[in-house]
Design goal:
Length: 441
């Protein structure tokens, strides 16, 4: 696994488009095309929180040069699950806001809005990142400026993310998916054929056939992205009669953390003898988490897919078999990830029908609104706090550093997302997107 494989993160940089109403009052399950959905925004905020928390622990003494907490603390998050969830969320929101037929005018409008949404905050993040570490050469800086950064080599040519901000790799993936979406939007391919093709390409590195790793990694991520798009374009909304989902949101989130610890398909494939020379930051084994990500998104958007709940129950069964194997082989209590994965999995089953807690997701909606800035800024801010915060060497200093990082990141993100970005958008995009969508029907 690459050195930065645990740097999984992906921002919520989709909020320039209005979100979708979900489960409100007597219209439970009905969808209002241009309404705000606090649960969906909260899901994005929770994923951003997972990313921020996970990066405090993913490298030894990364935050505090004189102290590192127990490894167990780093397994209380779902940083890998967050990137998968954000890919699905990205495809869904792009799809739900571009449902009408393709035209060149609409494509230009779409690209312009994506650029306005991303680039100003991204440039600020690059400046902060360069200030945090000034050792990157101009080729690396220019490559990051044009979203070319990747941990995988392009046929032998490597262009890494900036040293102080390795999570910027995901912007390379996301921008590529924005561009590929134009082809999907224009030609509307058969989704089953598209899924199968992407999944086959994704699996090729595990067969040690010399297939380019970066192509397989892009394919894996795009499976998640296209799944969200499919949910937006073809999955029906649930009936307007109130109906409880099959799983509570809290249960699904707990299971997401459990899967982040177990990495089930990765373990199974290696046990079967598949041992590729290199596993990319996004790889085929992560497809095991796809039904869970779709189930979470379906819950908060009022969408329905056949057999999806059954697939999540089957995932629980597979995890149960893995836990049983670890118990029998006396390995269950040898690593934090096995123990905490088991704990989260059991808690997920116990809370599967506890819908009374599902309102908690909305509490993260404000964080969801600034999650893109949180994503692109938090890592270099951690680097700066590591280098310049004067107090180090114990649990109190570690906690103080965490609070400083959180406070500075949230404050700067609020300034960029809430105070500055809307003015830039209003200047560059004077016509409101809501009005255009209403005219488009």
């Amino acid at each position: 696994m690459h050195y930065f494989a645990n740097a999984f993160s992906l921002p919520g940089y989709l909020s320039s488009y209005p979100l979708i109403k979900n489960h409100t009052g007597s219209s439970r399950g009905s969808l209002t095309y241009n309404a705000y959905n606090p649960a969906l925004e909260g899901l994005r905020g929770l994923a951003a929180l997972f990313v921020l928390y996970g990066h405090f622990f993913y490298r030894d003494r990364f935050l505090d040069p004189g102290y590192q907490p127990s490894a167990g603390w780093g397994h209380l998050s779902a940083t890998r699950g967050a990137v998968l969830l954000f890919f699905v969320l990205s495809g869904y929101l792009i799809g739900i806001t571009n449902k009408s037929s393709f035209s060149q005018a609409k494509a230009k409008d779409y690209l312009k809005r994506r650029a306005v949404r991303l680039y100003f905050i991204y440039l600020v993040a690059l400046v902060v990142t360069i200030f945090a570490h000034r050792g990157d050469g101009w080729p690396t800086v220019l490559g990051n400026l044009f979203f070319l950064q990747n941990f995988d080599a392009y046929f032998g040519w490597v262009l890494l993310p900036l040293t102080a901000n390795p999570p910027l790799w995901s912007l390379n993936y996301e921008v590529l998916y924005y561009l590929i979406f134009l082809l999907v939007w224009r030609f509307r391919p058969n989704f089953v054929f598209l899924f199968l093709t992407l999944a086959v390409i994704s699996a090729l590195p595990w067969l040690s056939l010399g297939f380019p790793d970066f192509v397989a990694a892009y394919s894996t991520g795009f499976v998640f992205w296209v799944s969200g798009l499919y949910l937006a374009w073809q999955a029906p909304s649930v009936p307007t009669v109130p109906r409880r989902p099959h799983f509570s949101n809290v249960s699904l989130v707990l299971f997401l953390v459990a899967l982040d610890n177990f990495q089930v398909l990765h373990v199974v494939l290696k046990a079967m003898g598949f041992r590729p020379d290199y596993v990319s930051i996004v790889d085929f084994s992560q497809l095991f988490s796809l039904p869970l990500c779709l189930m979470l998104l379906a819950n908060v958007t009022g969408r329905s897919l056949p057999y999806l709940p059954l697939m999540v129950w089957l995932m629980h069964g597979v995890v149960g078999l893995l836990i049983a194997y670890l118990w029998v082989s006396q390995r269950l209590f040898t690593e934090w990830r096995w123990m905490l994965g088991t704990l989260f999995s059991v808690c997920s089953l116990l809370t599967a029908r506890m819908f009374i807690w599902d309102a908690w997701l909305v509490r993260f909606s404000q964080l969801g609104k600034i999650s893109f800035a949180v994503y692109v800024l938090h890592h270099p801010i951690i680097v700066l706090v590591h280098d310049y915060f004067p107090y180090a060497g114990n649990g109190w200093s570690f906690t103080a550093r965490m609070l400083v990082v959180i406070g500075v990141t949230l404050l700067l993100s609020y300034l960029l997302e809430v105070l500055i970005q809307p003015k830039i958008k209003a200047y560059l995009l004077p016509v409101r997107r809501v009005e255009e969508m209403k005219k488009a029907g």
